[in-house]
Design goal:
This protein has helices at 3-18, 68-83, 92-95, 108-112, 125-128, 136-146, 161-175, 179-188, 230-234, 248-262, 273-279, 347-359, and strands at 24-32, 37-48, 54-55, 62-63, 197-198, 245-246, 293-294, 311-315, 319-324, 329-335. It has 361 residues and is α+β, with helices and mostly antiparallel strands. It folds into two domains: 3-43 and 56-68 and 191-359, DD-peptidase/beta-lactamase superfamily (Beta-lactamase); 71-180, Beta-lactamase, CATH 3.40.710.
Length: 361
């Protein structure tokens, strides 16, 4: 990348820091050059401003929020598809004998592509924290089953945390293992990324450098290495919709592996290239594949220059990635915008400006 463009990007981030878009951010840009990736990585601002100021550096670990969906839950499901332990067309009634009638025909594919009819979000954590931890997963499952659907399954798409919470519980039911265990053993460790992508849960964090998000509603302590999402925190820090943490290196390298498979120049032990390509295909007329967002015609966070075949995802804490198979490139943006406030949405305006500056002519 030429020096002039890099200087403009640096200026954009400095302005964003001064305008409280986020306290700190990192981005990576990877472009396939024919034999390897040309990479640009930058870090700006602070991993924490309060209670103490910590400068953001290359080893810092971000709460990836909903990037958990495409970077953990979806790959684990692909591995289960490969083994035929479960299939995209498997219905909820085939998994849970007590599934209510209105949800019995919902398929795994519909959950992954946000076409199951569930609402976007529900605050289950208040009730979950009142019961013993070992009973919370079953209570969450029952709570989701009690929800009224917004639409008939398969009729329309509505982005939903509930669907991916359910997918996490389905993975546990099918395998008798946690999503965290499976993601590590099947996906990250074979790729050498087990130290860059993982679920820390609620255990002791040691001396690892974490990017801080927001104060916990109950303990009033700053969340650092503990998941920001309240429902996931009530579930012990591991869920199908949130809980994954990672470095900028981890997210960008995993996205590079996905692009390599998609382009047929790399392979994965956990699932075939053909299976990956299938789930990266747009579902109907929506802007979703089975687990990945796609570029919308108007107002996309990806800006104006990603190809329409691109896939990506956003995370509530201020994270995102986009993979462009036509331009053979990847952009990852990680920030802690919620450290200022979870109601700080200035990043919505920042994202397309940043992507345009990076990807434009």
């Amino acid at each position: 990348m030429d020096k002039k463009r890099t200087e403009k990007i640096d200026k954009l981030f400095i302005t964003a820091l001064n305008n409280n878009v986020f306290p700190g951010a990192a981005f990576s840009f990877s472009r396939w050059s024919g034999g390897d990736y040309d990479r640009l990585v930058r870090y700006y601002g602070y991993a924490e401003q309060k209670p103490e100021r910590k400068t953001l550096g290359k080893d810092y670990i971000f709460d990836l929020a909903s990037l958990t969906k495409p970077l953990a839950t979806v790959p684990v499901l692909l591995n289960l598809f490969e083994k035929k332990s479960i299939m995209p067309e498997t219905r909820l009634a085939e998994i849970f004998s007590f599934c209510p009638l209105d949800k019995s025909e919902i398929t795994i594919e519909q959950l992954m592509s946000h076409r199951a009819g569930f609402s976007p979000h529900k605050e289950y954590f208040n009730e979950l924290f009142k019961i013993p931890e070992q009973k919370r997963r079953m209570e969450l499952l029952k709570s989701i089953f009690r929800e009224s659907l917004l639409a008939k399954p398969g009729e329309s798409h509505c982005y939903s945390d509930l669907g991916f919470m359910l997918l996490g519980l389905i993975i546990e039911k099918i395998t008798d293992k946690s999503l965290s265990e499976l993601a590590s053993s099947c996906i990250y460790t074979p790729s050498g990324l087990q130290n860059d992508l993982f679920f820390p849960g609620l255990s002791e964090k040691g001396d690892k450098p974490y990017v801080s998000t927001e104060k916990c509603l109950w303990s009033e302590k700053m969340l650092s290495g503990i998941v920001h999402d309240d429902n996931c925190r009530a579930m012990g820090g591991v869920a199908g919709h949130a809980g994954l943490f990672g470095t900028i290196r981890g997210v960008s390298r995993f996205c590079e592996q996905l692009l390599d498979q998609w382009q047929g120049r790399g392979k994965c032990q956990a699932y075939s290239n053909e299976l990956l390509s299938k789930i990266l295909t747009r579902v109907g007329q929506s802007t979703w594949t089975m687990g990945f967002d796609m570029v919308s015609e108007k107002g996309s966070s990806s800006g104006r220059y990603f190809s329409k075949e691109s896939v990506g995802h956003l995370g509530f804490t201020g994270t995102s990635f986009w993979i462009d198979p036509v331009k053979n490139c990847i952009v990852v943006l990680l920030s802690n915008r919620v450290h200022i406030s979870r109601d700080n949405w200035k990043i919505k305006e920042f994202r397309p400006i940043f992507h345009d500056l990076l990807m434009g002519k």
